[in-house]
Design brief:
By secondary structure, the chain is mainly alpha-helical. The chain has two domains: 9-94; 124-195, no CATH class. The protein is built from six helices and two strands, in the order ααααααββ. It has helices at 9-33, 42-57, 63-92, 96-112, 124-146, 154-172; strands spanning 176-184, 187-195. Strands 1-2 form a two-stranded antiparallel ribbon. Helix 1 (9-33) runs antiparallel to helix 2 (42-57) and helix 5 (124-146) crosses helix 6 (154-172). The longest helix has 30 residues, at 63-92. The termini are far apart.
């Protein structure tokens, strides 16, 4: 006859507490990533990490409780990886939900406030940035149509285009450089054309 394991009720209570707090923390992070909460629940996460360390230090004999503790630790670990990845995306400005919200706000502002006449003409830097932005948006749209994946960083693309402009102007002794987005072998490419 199989031996019945004696469960430690206090330890079981600590595991229940950890599981409940992990569930609440997951909801808090979901709210934070969806923009419902403005502050990341860092304190709650640190508290839960401390509680896990305390639970790990308690000697336990029941295999069932040991297994439960290890599976909850693994779940917490995978959630932390997910949260960290999302936080990095937010920091870099590449988080999909953030980008979607920014586009919605931009569209709402455009509808609410029609274009106001500029009091001053755009500076050469603003004009240049506008041209790079237009090339970047056309390039991204063409990549999507071609089925190319991967996120692009506008600042990195702008720096590459600006460097190309300097190189082409000095090499061909031209006044300006225009960019054209083309598709070659099913892939989007940006071509620089010197203008005399």
């Amino acid at each position: 006859m199989a031996k019945v394991e004696k469960l430690d009720r206090t330890y079981e209570g600590r595991l229940d507490e950890f599981e409940k707090r992990l569930f609440v923390l997951k909801i808090d992070y979901d709210k934070y990533f969806n923009g419902l909460e403005r502050v990341e629940p860092v304190k709650e996460r640190d508290d839960l990490r401390r509680l896990l360390k305390e639970i790990e230090q308690i000697p336990v004999k029941a295999t069932r409780q040991l297994h439960r503790m290890r599976s909850m630790k693994a779940r917490f670990s995978s959630m932390e990886l997910f949260w960290t990845r999302n936080l990095l995306q937010i920091e870099r400005g590449t988080h999909p939900k953030q980008q979607f919200r920014a586009k919605v706000h931009e569209a709402a502002r455009a509808v609410a406030a029609p274009e106001v006449k500029r009091e001053r003409p755009p500076t050469p830097q603003e004009r240049e940035d506008g041209r790079y932005r237009a090339v970047f948006e056309e390039y991204v749209a063409t990549r999507e149509r071609c089925g190319q994946t991967g996120e692009l960083n506008y600042d990195a693309i702008r720096d590459v285009l600006a460097k190309q402009v300097r190189t082409i102007k000095s090499r061909y002794d031209c006044n300006d450089v225009h960019f054209r987005v083309t598709v070659e072998d099913g892939k989007a490419k940006v071509k620089a054309v010197p203008q005399r």
